[in-house]
Specification:
81% of the residues lie in helices and 0% in strands. The chain contains seven helices and no strands. Helix 2 (25-48) packs antiparallel against helix 3 (52-79).
């Protein structure tokens, strides 16, 4: 089993990518470790520059962003009788978070190559690329929920909307409240 092979397959919406992941509690923790490690290192660097409050705030936002989808999807999976499939889904979902920055890097590379050829992208093109990236992320989350938890279309949509909207609310809401 290979997480990289699983990510590559699932990122291209291939069902067989799930076979690359095991559904254990330890595997869920292992899949979370790198997602926490990078923000933690960044937070330590930020704190080292005397920005403790910002570092702590960012780290807490990251933890909320990582755990909220897990809590929401586990709750719904249990409610819908899919709890036996949830651990593998959670592992695959966590690892597939890396597909989105990889897609972003591909977009940036294409835009950079175009700029090197004298084609400077307009704000509309860049905006369209970002909207496409958000759409890809949502489609990937939907695919993972639909296939990984064997959900009907409507329930997969509900799960993705609930997890993504609640995560956004919990991460962005407090920051907006503190600024306003």
């Amino acid at each position: 089993m290979s997480a990289l092979r699983g990510i590559a397959r699932l990122a291209r919406f291939r069902v067989d990518g799930f076979a690359e992941f095991v559904g254990t509690s330890q595997a869920v923790l292992n899949s979370l470790a790198p997602l926490v490690a990078f923000p933690l290192a960044g937070g330590l660097l930020q704190a080292g520059q005397g920005e403790w409050q910002s570092a702590l705030s960012d780290l807490l936002a990251t933890i909320v962003a990582l755990l909220t989808p897990l809590v929401v999807t586990e709750f719904l999976a249990r409610r819908w009788g899919r709890e036996a499939l949830w651990l593998r889904f959670a592992v695959a979902s966590n690892w597939c978070q890396w597909a989105i920055p990889m897609a972003l890097m591909a977009i940036v590379l294409v835009l950079w190559m175009g700029a090197q050829l004298g084609m400077h992208p307009s704000k509309a093109v860049v905006g369209g690329c970002l909207i496409g990236l958000i759409g890809y992320g949502i489609a990937l989350h939907y695919f993972l929920a639909r296939v990984g938890l064997q959900l009907p279309r409507g329930r997969a949509v509900v799960m993705v909307l609930a997890a993504d909207l609640l995560t956004g609310l919990l991460v962005v809401g407090p920051r907006l409240f503190m600024e306003g």
